[in-house]
Write a structure and sequence with these properties.
Blueprint: E1 2-6, H1 15-24, E2 29-33, H2 43-47, E3 52-56, H3 69-89, E4 94-96, H4 103-108, H5 110-131, E5 135-138, H6 151-161, E6 164-168, H7 169-174, E7 187-192, H8 212-221, E8 227-230, H9 235-248
Parallel strand pairs: 1-2, 1-8, 2-3, 3-4, 4-5, 5-6, 6-7, 7-8
Length: 249
């Protein structure tokens, strides 16, 4: 089983400090959140650690489904920068959010938002394939304006494009999916965290109500060979979650 942790837990610390924490726990992978305050990541710094990497492309101030051409194209360019970084450091996957429908877009132009998101996803998938980088799209929680909360719709799109999904287990639970309903063949990367279904809380594993054992056991029985990225709020939650995974799986 490949286990990693997101640097999101150390967003208020230096990247070096967070990577040191992850490595010292004995975790094999780190997922680099490639946006402010870590827009520029030094590959030499990464090589100084005995870690393997995945990358979370920027999602703050970025929208690949934006109706404004300049905003959308700039967002695509930023995510291609993450794919380029993944190629440079031989990262195992890049995670991409499918975009947002802002207030007026959600009210009047939702179909167009999805159309543009699909076009952007296709473009990014092809860009990644050309570089040999696994470019994955993440399902979203149930918050206003977030598209592709519906995992079936996302799976259908990605299957048609021969692309992969990052299953965010906490997002899926927040969107009302059962443990059985979260499993799709397009899943090649996992974000794992816990919640009670009422919020995208990113709790340590075992601190919410998600049937994590059923989900992971089902994935393992289907020969899932991607990474489980612990995506929680702080260092202590990384440690608790890693101990949970070692004990239960």
């Amino acid at each position: 089983m490949k286990i990693g942790a997101s640097t999101l837990a150390g967003i208020d610390n230096t990247l070096e400090h967070t990577l040191e924490f992850i490595e010292n726990l004995g975790i094999e992978y780190a997922e680099l959140v490639h946006q402010f305050p870590c827009e520029d990541i030094d590959a030499d710094l990464l090589e100084s650690f005995n870690l393997k990497y995945s990358i979370h492309a920027p999602f703050m101030d970025v929208n690949i489904a934006a109706l404004q051409d300049k905003s959308r194209l700039n967002s695509i360019r930023q995510i291609k920068d993450s794919i380029d970084l993944a190629n440079e450091i031989n990262a195992e996957a890049v995670v991409v959010h499918p975009g947002l429908a802002t207030f007026l877009a959600n009210k009047y132009f939702l179909d167009k938002v999805y159309e543009l998101s699909n076009e952007s996803i296709k473009e990014l998938g092809e860009y990644g394939k050309d570089l040999g980088v696994l470019t994955t799209i993440e399902n979203m929680p149930t918050f206003d304006g977030m598209i592709y909360q519906n995992i079936e719709d996302l799976d259908e799109l990605l299957t048609s494009l021969d692309m992969a999904m990052t299953l965010d287990i906490g997002h899926a639970n927040h969107a009302g999916y059962s443990a059985e309903g979260m499993i799709f063949d397009s899943i090649k990367h996992i974000h794992i965290h816990d919640n009670y279904g009422d919020d995208d809380a990113h709790l340590a594993l075992g601190e919410g109500s998600i049937d994590l054992n059923h989900i992971v056991d089902t994935l393992e029985n289907k020969n899932y060979d991607g990474i489980y990225i612990i995506e929680v709020n702080d260092y202590d939650s990384i440690k608790k979650s890693y101990e949970y995974m070692k004990k239960n799986f």
